[in-house]
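Q: What would this chain look like folded?
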Amino acid sequence: MSAPSIDVRYVADLARLDLDEEEIRTFQAQLGTILEYVEKLGELELEGIEPTAYPSPVFDRMDADEPRPGLDPSALLGNAPDQASGQVRVPKVVADA
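A: My prediction, written as structure tokens:
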């Protein structure tokens, strides 16, 4: 069974890409290779395999939104260019009304 072909000119037109003839030939070959690979994937025996979104378990990667025990908050201001009273000072960005 032959892999379906993609009309590169049509797809490039939809994406508003201006491709020259050499680019069209290059993309046609690359897309043909991709479609052949997808066809090979379709031949795999997947009976009894549950679909997954990730190959391995994903856990919450975010840190808790609280200071770490023993962390001195003033140490966080060491790189601040301007500070006062333990806070970072920033320039005013709102005009007076």
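The first strand starts at residue 83 and ends at 84.
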